[in-house]
Request: fold
Amino acid sequence: MKKQPEITERTRQKFVNAFWELARAKPVSKIAVSELTRLAGYNRSTFYEYFLDTDDLLTYVEDKLIEEVGEVAKKSMSKDEAPTEFFRMVFAAVNEKIYILVGPNGDSSFLPRVRTELIPLASQYLPIRPDTKNFDYLVAFVNSAMFGLLEHWHDKNKDISPEEISEMMQRLVFGGVREYIEDSGQCLPVSQLT
Reply:
């Protein structure tokens, strides 16, 4: 007898939720099937009906996260949202999950996937035209800066609000460091920088 699709999806989602809960507390490479099944409320054989192993679950989680960002991008494009709105929407939807996967306890193979699959989506919202000289370097810089800010924010126990860090990311991407700090009057004149 085949399981009903909604039961199948609900069971799979319980394993995914268990994964995220465990990944907040420990390296993803250390998550065991026994922990997942205990937390999800199922036995090992049920886990193996849905996933080959924990790596298969990790791949599934990463695929879903990339899909989620793609959906946010499509929604933003369909509404003709401003580029800053796209970043705010993505940040609100997945910042914690992205941090878990690219942070110190995450999956080292996920960041290259982000670059390959998500950067093309995000790059259309950047103030850099694709035909700009060294476009890929500029996008790599923005990518590294944003993930660096996200990691630093988490390392500092989110000492500023999600809205503030999201706005900071956007302002830095769209205006640069100099423009960001000029408002505070703390920017050195260019003559003093050389």
In short: The chain has a mean pLDDT of 82. The radius of gyration is 20 Å.
